[in-house]
Design a protein that fits this description.
Protein name: GNAT family N-acetyltransferase
Radius of gyration: 19 Å
Largest sheet: 11 strands, mixed
Keywords: Acyltransferase, Transferase
GO molecular function: acyltransferase activity, transferring groups other than amino-acyl groups
CATH superfamily of the largest domain: Gcn5-related N-acetyltransferase (GNAT)
InterPro entries: Acyl_CoA_acyltransferase (IPR016181), GNAT_dom (IPR000182), Rv0428c-like_C (IPR056935), YpeA/RimI_acetyltransf (IPR050680)
Number of strands: 11
Number of domains: 2
Helix content: 25-40%
CATH topology of the largest domain: Aminopeptidase
Structural class: alpha+beta
Organism: Cohnella candidum
Number of helices: 7
Order of helices and strands: HEEEHEHEEHHEEEHEHE
CATH architecture of the largest domain: 3-Layer(aba) Sandwich
Shape: globular
CATH class of the largest domain: Alpha Beta
Strand order of the largest sheet: 1-2-3-4-11-5-10-9-8-7-6
Strand content: 25-35%
Length: 249
């Protein structure tokens, strides 16, 4: 099931281009987010006899041709020894992250803030709100638009309002009865007021109405306020991952 969550998360936040090399997925999206610009080594079968240096060098060549740093996502499902091999090659460890699951959606609280919209296709209004809260560049907005438009999955682009002004936004993506939470962000000027919790409750209620029974998310471990919020909502850690990055050149 945990490996399935990895697949769901890859589908929920897709890359613009994916190459398959001997069972490894090389995802590329013009450098916007590590999730969409990293090697996912979660397939490949028996790896005991692999020429690690040759296989890693191939990945480095592909990312260099795209003008990108080479990044590997290190989950519990990658081949044993890969993380140590990357460290030996000078790859830096970045962004230790917690994968958390909420097992039941039928007992979630009803949100007390009623003004929220959920649109099932990406709109420029939601994109502008998200980019403004996150400080996303024009390039990042353009890549996000490409990645999230036309997905075959059920998407919910949620915006929470206070006095008719957007104060938080986020995305829920449903696959196989699981809703993933992505890009949950509150206006920097409106934080610590409970808006993030209200936003998530709206997304979870929408997801339950659309057939989801379970939820998952990924949160960087040093983001203490977000970790506290997710623990308050009942999300429990099931595994962790991190990235290994080698700078271009």
């Amino acid at each position: 099931m945990n490996r399935h969550l990895e697949e769901y998360s890859l589908n929920a936040w897709p890359a613009l281009r994916t190459m398959v090399h001997e069972g490894w997925l090389l995802r590329l999206a013009e450098g916007y987010t590590k999730r969409s610009n990293s090697v996912q080594a979660i397939y490949g079968g028996c790896e005991q006899t692999v020429d690690w240096d040759r296989k890693i060098a191939y990945c480095e060549e592909q990312y260099a041709q795209a003008g990108l740093d080479t990044v590997f996502k290190i989950t519990p499902f990658v081949p044993s020894g890969l993380d140590a091999k990357l460290a030996d090659r000078g790859y830096m460890l970045l962004d230790p992250t917690s994968v958390r699951v909420l097992d039941r959606l039928d007992s979630i609280k009803i949100p007390t803030m009623s003004k929220a919209t959920i649109e099932e296709t990406l709109t420029e209004g939601w994109l502008e709100t998200m980019a403004g809260f996150n400080g996303t560049s024009d390039h990042g907005k353009a890549v996000t638009r490409k990645m999230l438009t036309g997905s075959p999955l059920t998407q919910g682009f949620c915006t929470l309002y206070a006095d008719s002004v957007p104060v938080a936004c986020g995305l829920g993506v449903i696959e196989q009865g699981h809703v993933g939470l992505l890009d949950i962000v509150t206006d920097p000027n409106c934080r610590n007021r409970g808006y993030g919790e209200q936003l998530i409750l709206h997304i979870l209620r929408w997801a339950r109405e659309n057939g989801a029974a379970r939820s998952y998310l990924q949160v960087v471990q040093n983001n203490a306020p977000a970790v506290r919020l997710y623990e308050k909502l009942g999300y429990e850690e099931i595994y962790t991952y991190w990235y290994r990055q080698k700078k271009l050149g």
